[in-house]
Amino acid sequence: MSVAKSPSSAPKTAALLSAVVIVASLGYFVDIYDLVLFSIVRVESLKGIGITAPADITEQGQYLLSMQMGGMLLGGILWGILGDKRGRLSVLFGSILMYSLANIANGFVQTIDQYAWLRLIAGVGLAGELGAGITLVAESLPKEKRGYGTMIVASVGVSGAMVAYGVGQYFGWRNAYFIGGGLGLALLALRAGVFESGMFEQAKREGVERGNFASLFTNGPRLAKYIRCLFLGVPFWFLVGILITMAPEFGQEFGVQGAVTGGLSIFWCYFGLTLGDFTSGALSQLFKSRNRTLQLFIVACATMVGVYLYGLHGASTTMFYLVCFLIGYAGGFWALFVTVSAEQFGTNLRSTVATTAPNFARGAIVLINPAFSALKPSLGITGAATVIGAVTLLLAFFSASTLPESYGKDLDYVEE
C-alpha cells in the first residue's frame, strides 16, 4: 500500500543539468569502467599471475567474474538499505570510495585467491553507485524530465567501458586498475556540490520507517512487482556475461575469419549500449511510456541474439564486432530498467529497490554461468546460450508487459 504526501510537502526540483545529474553521470562512468575492466583484461591479467592454459583462463575467469557479481549481490542489499536509512548521498560516495580503493589494490595482486577476494570487495562497492545515483536524480528532477536525466546518466556512464578498453590496451592491466581507482577518488572531490534528495529528507523528518528490505517479501503484490523488476534486468547480463565476455570462445566456435578479442567485443557492445541507453530514454519520453519502449528493445534484443548465435558462422571479424555493437544497442534498456524500478516504489523503499534490482540482475550471472556450463556438454555452446537467452528474454518481456506504467508518476509517496 502507498500513501501520497500533501502537495505542500513536495520538494523543490533541480535543473536537468544540475550538479546531481553531472556527479551521478560521472560516478556511473567510473562504475562501468571498473565493472567491465576485468572482462577486458581477463586474459592478460590471468597470464600475468601465472595462469596460461586456455582452459584454465576460461575457468578461472568465470570464477573471478562470479566472485565480483557475488559481491554485487551482497552490496546491493547493503547499499540499498543504507540508501533508504542513511540517505542517497552517503551511498553514492561511500560506494565510490570502496570500489576505488579495491581496484587500486587489484593492481597489486599476485595470486588467484588475492584476485578473487578483491573482485568480491570491488563488487560490493560497485553495487551502490547506480541505484543511489538514479534514485537521487529521479527524486530531484521534475517528473516530466526525469527520463531525460536518467538517460544522461546512462549515456555518460556506459561510455566508461570504451575508456576502460583504451586504457587496458595501452597502459597494461595493472595500470588500468590504478587509473580506475584514481578516477573514483578524484570524483569524491565533487561531493560538496551535491545535495540530498528533498523527498528523502521529508520522509526522515516525518519518522517514516525506511529501508525495510524484508517488507518487499511480506506483501504479495509488492513482491510480484519487485520480481518483475528483477526479470527486466537479467537479459543484459546474459548478453555481457556470456555472449560478449566469452566472445573469443564463440568466435572460435563460429569459425570467424580472424581472432576475436574480448576487449574489442566489449568496446563495441558498450559503444552500442551508450547509444541504446540514449535512444531508449528518449523514446520513453517521446512515447510517454516506459513499458512500450522496454517491449520494443527486448524484441530487438532477442532478434540480435538470434543473429549472433546463428548468423555469424564463417563471418569476418568486422561483421562479428558489428553484431556485438547491435547487441549492445538493442540491450540499451539498462538505465530505463533501473528508472522503472525506482519509479515503482515509494520514497522509503526506493533506494532499496533501485539498488538491489540492478545488482540482483547483475548477480544473476552467478546462476547463469553454472547453468551455461551444465547445458554445454549436451547442447553445445550455441544451444546452451540459446536456451538461457530465450528464458531470460521471455521473462523480461512478460515483466515489461505487466508492470504498471510509471511514466510521469508522482514519486512523492511512501509504502506502508
TrEMBL record:
| Key words of the record | Membrane, Transmembrane, Transmembrane helix
Main location per the UniProt record: membrane
According to the record, the segments passing through the membrane are 12-30, 63-82, 89-109, 115-138, 150-171, 177-195, 229-248, 254-273, 294-313, 319-340, 379-400
Localization of this protein: Membrane
Q: How does it sit in the membrane?
A: Multi-pass membrane protein
- The keyword Transmembrane belongs to this UniProt entry's keyword annotation: yes
* Recorded superkingdom: Bacteria
Domain called Major facilitator superfamily (MFS) profile: residue spans: 20-407
Protein name, UniProt field: MFS transporter
Which species does this protein come from? Hymenobacter volaticus
